[in-house]
Amino acid sequence: MPALRALLTLALSAGCAGVPCATSQQAPPQPVDPAHMSSDAVVAQQQELDRYRRLANDYGQLSRYAAANAALAPALPGERRVVFFGDSITDGWHLDQYFPGKNYVNRGIGGQTTPQMLVRFRQDVLALRPALVVILAGTNDLAGNTGPETLTQIESDYASLAELARANGVRVVFSSVMPVSNYVFPNMTTGRPPAQILTLNAWLEHYCAANSLVYLDYFKAMVDPAGMLRRELSGDGLHPNPAGFAAMTPLAAAAIDKALAQPPAPVPGTPAQ
Predict the structure, then answer these.
(1) CA-angle at 250, arms to 244 and 256, nearest 5°
(2) pLDDT tens digits for 215-227?
């Protein structure tokens, strides 16, 4: 275990260089004698230890799409490639089914936070030379998947993603953080407080307006009068089901069309040419 803790510290220090990241505050769980644990507890602890090993070995999960990126053919002349970039909601979205004939590229990874996304942004987005990136993130930051983060840190990561994209001529669509619900699992809003989701979305909308980006508002279309993710759009209160993705698709399509109709926005602080 001391070796694992050392590896984790080194990996997170390297992976989070230059980005807000509080993961180093979160120590790996200590092993317990399996003789004093139930079989379910042993399995759960092993899964948690495996998660920390994966973070130590590949914090940004660069290995996930390395082969797919290498195999992806360059965009055809005149093709305006679109990359969907995000966490499990993007990862589980079968873009070929919901956007037939569009050849959109999916680079979602379940469970990821914005610091992890910054680590892999060059490999999984910029190197693919897209015209546009659609970013959906934030919910796992609020849940503390890689350690506690303040809203200011999450906002800084969003801004860094936008600045990296625009410095490379890539248009940006920022998606709202989606609502969650307690209809299936009663504590979903505990880890992802609705008030924080609203605050983060308000910041995103303002940032997009101030920096000539497109804001994609899934939240308003998917929230119910109680402020929860509509029951019929999710099977677990967090991830969209087929009806949820069907509701998201025309919103995403409209945002993509709007963004592609605009010239790439300059990096903030860059004088207009």
Answers:
(1) 120
(2) 999 999 999 999 9
Residue at 268 is within a domain? no
Report yes or no on 201 lying in a domain: yes
- List the end-to-end C-alpha distance of the chain, in Å, as a whole number: 55
Average pLDDT of the residues of the chain:
87
Distance (Å, rounded) from C-alpha 265 to C-alpha 268? 9
Do 30 and 78 belong to one domain?
Answer: no
Domain hosting residue 194, numbered range:
64-260
The Cα-based distances of 246 to 85, 253, 254 in angstroms read 18, 11, 13
Residues 126 and 232 grouped into a single domain = yes
Q: Is residue 266 part of a domain?
A: no
Q: Strand 82-86: give its sheet, edge to edge.
A: 105-108, 82-86, 132-136, 171-175, 214-216
Per-residue pLDDT at 270? 56
> Rounded CA gap, 186 and 91, in Å?
24
Residue 116 lies in a domain: yes
DSSP helix/strand/coil, 136: strand
pTM surpassing 0.85? no
